[in-house]
Specification:
The complex is a heterodimer. By secondary structure, chain A is an alpha+beta fold. Chain A has seven helices and six strands, in the order E-H-E-E-H-E-E-H-H-H-E-H-H. Chain A has one domain: Alpha-Beta Plaits. In chain A, 26% of the residues lie in helices and 13% in strands. In chain A, strands 1-6 form a two-stranded antiparallel ribbon. In chain A, strand 2 and strand 3 form a beta hairpin. Chain B is an all-alpha fold. Chain B has one domain. Helix content of chain B is 54%, strand content 0%. Chain B has three helices and no strands. The chains are: A alpha+beta, B mainly alpha. The interface between A and B is medium-sized, with 39 and 26 residues. Chain A: Keywords: 4Fe-4S, Iron, Iron-sulfur, Metal-binding. Chain A: This is 4Fe-4S dicluster domain-containing protein. Chain A: InterPro entries: 4Fe4S_Fe-S-bd, 4Fe4S_Fe_S_CS, ET_IronSulfur_Cluster-Binding. Chain A: Pfam families: Fer4_11 (PF13247).
Chain lengths: 198, 72
C-alpha cells in the first residue's frame, strides 16, 4: 500500500510561495490560516535555505495522541485527517505538533479558537467524497479525483514532491546522486557525528 | 514582609484544595473523554479507505519531476 508523503528539495526551493497561494486558493482557506508555509533560514545571507512546510502526516501523529475527542484518524494512504464535527478547538494539537500544522480561524472574541484546520493532503475529510459539505469544511479532494496535492503539482522548480513515498524518495535519491552532494539536512551532524557524510 | 504561616490561613487553602480535588474526581467519574477514549467516535472503514490511484495524471507528475535523473 502506497504511503503518501511530502518531500521538499531545499536545494530547489526559491521561496516563491506559490505552494502557499495555490493551497489557499484551492481549498478556500479562511483568513488567518495557512495550511502550508515557506520557512527560510539565514534569510539574505550566504547559505540561505527555504523549505516548504505543512502537515507531515506523521505515522504516529502527536496531534492525534493528545486530542481529547479523538477527532483524528489515519487513512489507508497514510494521511492524517480530522473531523471538524468532533473538534472542540481546545488547541492541544497546536502545542503537540512540531511543525505548527494545526491552525485555528480567528472567528470569535475572548480567545475562542473555532474548529482546527490543517493540511488534508488534498484528500478532504470524513464527509462523502467530492461533496459540497466536504469542500466547505476541508477543501477539495484531489486524491479522489486521481490527482496529487496542488502545492506539489504547481511547484515551478519541482522542489516540492508529493505522492507515493517510495517513488518520490527514489526521485530525490537520483537527484542527490546526480548532484554529488546531499541536502545538508540541518541537525544531522549534531544528532549523529561531525564526520557523517551528507 | 513576612509570610503568614498561621494555621487559619493554611486551613483556608487546604479547604479549597480539598473541594477542588473532590470536584475533579467527581467530574472525571461522570464523563471524561480522556477516561474513556474508546467511547469516542471512530472513523469508518469507508472514511479510512485509500483514495490514491496511480492515474496518468499522477504518472505524469512523477515523470516530469524525475525526467532529469530517473532512468527511462
Amino acid at each position: 500500500m502506497a504511503r503518501m508523503k511530502f518531500l521538499c528539495d531545499a536545494d530547489r526551493c526559491i521561496e516563491c510561495n506559490a505552494c502557499v497561494t495555490a493551497c489557499k486558493n484551492e481549498h478556500d482557506v479562511p483568513w488567518g490560516i495557512n495550511r502550508r508555509r515557506v520557512v527560510t533560514l539565514n534569510d539574505g545571507k550566504p547559505g540561505e535555505r527555504s523549505v516548504s512546510m505543512a502537515c507531515m502526516h506523521c505515522t504516529d501523529a502527536p496531534c492525534a495522541a493528545v486530542c481529547p475527542t479523538s477527532c483524528f484518524y489515519n487513512t489507508a494512504d497514510g494521511v492524517v485527517l480530522h473531523s471538524k464535527d468532533l473538534c472542540i478547538g481546545c488547541g492541544y494539537c497546536f502545542y503537540a505538533c512540531p511543525f505548527g500544522a494545526p491552525q485555528y480561524p480567528r472567528v470569535g472574541n475572548f480567545g475562542t479558537r473555532g474548529k482546527m484546520d490543517k493540511c488534508t493532503y488534498c484528500s478532504g475529510g470524513p464527509e462523502a467524497d467530492l461533496t459540497t459539505a466536504e469542500y466547505v469544511k476541508y477543501g477539495s479532494n484531489r486524491l479522489a479525483e486521481g490527482k496529487l496535492p496542488l502545492c506539489a503539482e504547481l511547484c515551478s522548480t519541482k522542489a516540492l514532491l508529493a505522492g507515493d513515498g517510495e517513488i518520490i524518495a527514489r526521485i530525490y535519491k537520483e537527484r542527490v546522486l546526480t548532484r554529488g552532494y546531499g541536502s545538508g539536512a540541518w541537525g544531522w551532524k549534531t544528532a549523529y557525528r561531525e564526520t557523517v557524510a551528507l | 514582609m513576612t509570610r503568614k504561616t498561621d494555621d487559619k490561613a493554611l486551613d483556608r487553602r487546604g479547604f479549597f484544595k480539598a473541594v477542588g480535588g473532590a470536584t475533579t474526581v467527581a467530574a472525571a467519574a461522570v464523563a471524561s473523554p480522556l477516561a474513556a477514549p474508546e467511547a469516542a467516535a471512530q472513523a469508518s472503514d469507508d472514511e479510512r479507505r485509500a483514495r490514491y490511484r496511480e492515474t496518468d495524471h499522477v504518472k505524469a507528475f512523477y515523470r516530469t519531476n524525475g525526467y532529469e535523473t530517473l532512468k527511462k
